[in-house]
Inverse folding.
C-alpha cells in the first residue's frame, strides 16, 4: 500500500500545484538519454516529460493501431498565417498575439479550420503535423459518436439497461441505469476517481487495470493471479450503485462510463473497438496518418482516454461532427445523432449547474459525452486532461483543435485551459464575421 500511496501522491501534486512559471529540464537528451532526462512509465504524465511522451505514447504504454485508408483529404494552405498575430485576451484579460497565448499555455499543436479550409496551424515543443498526440478524454466523444451507429441500426435501445447487452453487468451498479444515463455521465454509481483514498477500488484495482498510470508491479500481474485484470473485470465486479442518488439526477463525470460504451460497441458489433472505429470512421475521413489507441492490462482499448492522432486528423474528425456527420460528401454518422448532442433538456442543464466542479465553467450541459457551451450556436467541445481540446462552432463554421502538455492534469478552473478556450471563442467570432 505504501507504493500505491507514493505513486498516487505524485498525481495529487500534479493536480494541485500552481505552474505559472516552471523551469524546463531537458527531456530524452542524449543517445542514450541521460538519467535525469529519461522519460519513463512512472513520469510520463509529469511536466516536462509529458512534452515528449504525449507525442510518443507508444513508448510508455501499449497500443493497437487504427490504420488510415483511401485517398487523403488534402488541405491547401495554411491560408491565413497572419492569424498568429491576431490579438486575443487570456483569462486574466491580458492582451497578446494568438501564437503567444497558445505557446505560453503549454500548447503542442494548434489547427484552425473554417469551412473546408485550413487557415492556421502552429506547433511547439518538438511536435509537428506528422506526429500523433494522445487525446485523453476527447476519446470519450469519439466513442459516443461511434455508438450512434448502433443506435441508428436499432441494435441498442437507449432506455435499456447495459446489462441487457452485457449479462456480466447484472447486479452491478450499471444494472439499474439506462444507456442514456451512461452517455450523460448520470449513472449514479458508487465509484469515485479518488486520488486521496489509497484503499479505494480506483487506486487498488482500476488504475492498474487501465494500465495508463504507474503502480509498482501492476504490469507484472498475470490473469490467473488476480480477479481484476482488465477494465471490463472492474466494471462487472466492483462498480456498485450509489443508493443515495437516482440515475439521471446528477452529473458525476466518471471514466468508467466511457469504458462501458466501448465494451458495448465491441460486444454488440462483435468487433474489437479499434477495428470498429477504423471501419466506420477513420477509414472515411481522408486521414493523412494512422491513429492508434492505448490498451488496458488485458490489451483491450482504453476507450476512456487512449486515442492518438495527428492534429490535422483530429480536425478532420471535428469537421465531420460540425457538419452533422458528413465529411467530404459522405454521411459517416447519422445527422440526427450529432444533432441530439445539442438537444439539451432542463434536467441536463440542472445537472451541470448543480455540479460544484463545473458550475463556474462555460458549459451549459454535458450530453452524449460532449461538453456543450451554446446549443443554439452549435458551440461545443471534446475535452481531455492536460489541455486537449476539440472546439466546434457551427454558427461560425469553425473548428479548432489543440493538443497540449499542460503540467496540471485537470481542466476545471485551469488557467491554461480557460485562456485557450477564451481565445478560441474570440477567434471564432472574428472568423465568423469575415
Amino acid at each position: 500500500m505504501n507504493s500505491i500511496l507514493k505513486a498516487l501522491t505524485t498525481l495529487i501534486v500534479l493536480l494541485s500545484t500552481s505552474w505559472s512559471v516552471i523551469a524546463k529540464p531537458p527531456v530524452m537528451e542524449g543517445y542514450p538519454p541521460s538519467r535525469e532526462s529519461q522519460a519513463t512509465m512512472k513520469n510520463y504524465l509529469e511536466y516536462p516529460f509529458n512534452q515528449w511522451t504525449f507525442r510518443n505514447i507508444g513508448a510508455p504504454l501499449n497500443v493497437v493501431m487504427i490504420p488510415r485508408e483511401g485517398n487523403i483529404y488534402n488541405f491547401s494552405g495554411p491560408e491565413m498565417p497572419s492569424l498568429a498575430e491576431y490579438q486575443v485576451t487570456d483569462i486574466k484579460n491580458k492582451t497578446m498575439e494568438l501564437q503567444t497565448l497558445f505557446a505560453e499555455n503549454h500548447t503542442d499543436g494548434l489547427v484552425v479550420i473554417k469551412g473546408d479550409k485550413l487557415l492556421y496551424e502552429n506547433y511547439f515543443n518538438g511536435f509537428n503535423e506528422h506526429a500523433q498526440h494522445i487525446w485523453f478524454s476527447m476519446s470519450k466523444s469519439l466513442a459516443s459518436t461511434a455508438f450512434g451507429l448502433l443506435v441508428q441500426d436499432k441494435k441498442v435501445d437507449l432506455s435499456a439497461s447495459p446489462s441487457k447487452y452485457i449479462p456480466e453487468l447484472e447486479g452491478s451498479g450499471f444494472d439499474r441505469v439506462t444507456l442514456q444515463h451512461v452517455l450523460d455521465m448520470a449513472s449514479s454509481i458508487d465509484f469515485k476517481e479518488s486520488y486521496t483514498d489509497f484503499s479505494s477500488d480506483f487506486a487498488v484495482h482500476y488504475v492498474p487495470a487501465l494500465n495508463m498510470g504507474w503502480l509498482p508491479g501492476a504490469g507484472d500481474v498475470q490473469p490467473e493471479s488476480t480477479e481484476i485484470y482488465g477494465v471490463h473485470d472492474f466494471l462487472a465486479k466492483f462498480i456498485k450503485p450509489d443508493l443515495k442518488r437516482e440515475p439521471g439526477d446528477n452529473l458525476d463525470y466518471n471514466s468508467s462510463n466511457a469504458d462501458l460504451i466501448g465494451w458495448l460497441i465491441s460486444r454488440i458489433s462483435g468487433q474489437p473497438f479499434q477495428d470498429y472505429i477504423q471501419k466506420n470512421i477513420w477509414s472515411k475521413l481522408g486521414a493523412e496518418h494512422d491513429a492508434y489507441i492505448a490498451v488496458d492490462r488485458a490489451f483491450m482499448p482504453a476507450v476512456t482516454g487512449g486515442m492518438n492522432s495527428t492534429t490535422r486528423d483530429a480536425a478532420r474528425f471535428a469537421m465531420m461532427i460540425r457538419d452533422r456527420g458528413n465529411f467530404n460528401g459522405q454521411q459517416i454518422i447519422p445527422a440526427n445523432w450529432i444533432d441530439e448532442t445539442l438537444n439539451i433538456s432542463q434536467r441536463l442543464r440542472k445537472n451541470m449547474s448543480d455540479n460544484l466542479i463545473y458550475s463556474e465553467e462555460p458549459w451549459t450541459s454535458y450530453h452524449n459525452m460532449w461538453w456543450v457551451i451554446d446549443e443554439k450556436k452549435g458551440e461545443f467541445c471534446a475535452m481531455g486532461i492536460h489541455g486537449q481540446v476539440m472546439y466546434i462552432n457551427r454558427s461560425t463554421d469553425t473548428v479548432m483543435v489543440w493538443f497540449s502538455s499542460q503540467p496540471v492534469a485537470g481542466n476545471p478552473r485551469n488557467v491554461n485551459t480557460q485562456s485557450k478556450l477564451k481565445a478560441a471563442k474570440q477567434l471564432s467570432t472574428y472568423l465568423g464575421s469575415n
Notes: The longest strand covers residues 107-114. Residues 415-432 form the longest helix (18 residues). The chain is about 30% helix and 15% strand.
